[in-house]
Amino acid sequence: MDLITKTDEICVSFLKRIEETDNAVSGIFGDYRPALNGECYLTDRKLPKTLNISRWTLQNYRTEGKSPYYLLGGKILYRESDIEKILMNNYHPQSDEY
Fold first, then answer.
1. Shortest CA distance to 79 belongs to which of 36, 48, 45, 49?
2. Distances 5 to 8, 12, 15, 19 between C-alpha atoms, Å
3. Cα–Cα distance between 78 and 40 in angstroms, integer?
4. Which CATH number fits the domain that encloses residue 82?
5. What is the bridge-based pairing of β-strands 75-79 and 41-43?
6. For the whole model, what pTM was predicted?
7. Given pLDDT bands bounded at 50, 70 and 90, which one contains residue 28?
8. What is the pLDDT averaged over residues 14-19?
9. H/E stretch holding 79
10. What string of DSSP letters covers 15-59?
11. 77 lies in a domain?
């Protein structure tokens, strides 16, 4: 049996594949943050991008009491499940009248 070193072609190829896999996984899970008690929270910067609305519109929703939120040390957080409920409550299915 031959001794394989880190400079052997097979070893270099293997290490390169591991690095590529690590980069791919980091790219996929780079923004992932574990949930707290099964809940995910979105910031007032992330939520408008997710919903494709302006931060000003989101501020209006808070002011008008349409959107529940947490204020923690000057940072505003929204519980993802609350946002999903709002969306579902405001869902209007397509009418068959067309």
1. 36
2. 6, 9, 12, 18
3. 8
4. 1.10.10
5. antiparallel
6. 0.60
7. confident
8. 89
9. strand 75-79
10. HHHHHHHHHHHHHHHTT--PPBTTB-EEETTHHHHHHT--HHHHH
11. yes
Structure tokens of 35?
């949930």
Task: Give the position of tokens 């290490």.
Answer: 15
Q: Which residue has the tokens 């899970």?
A: 29
Return the C-alpha torsion angle 76, 29, 48, 39, nearest 10.
-50
Parent domain of 49: 41-89
- Which residue, 40, 33, 43, 53, is CA-closest to 80? 40
**Which residue in this structure is represented by tokens 């790219």?**
27
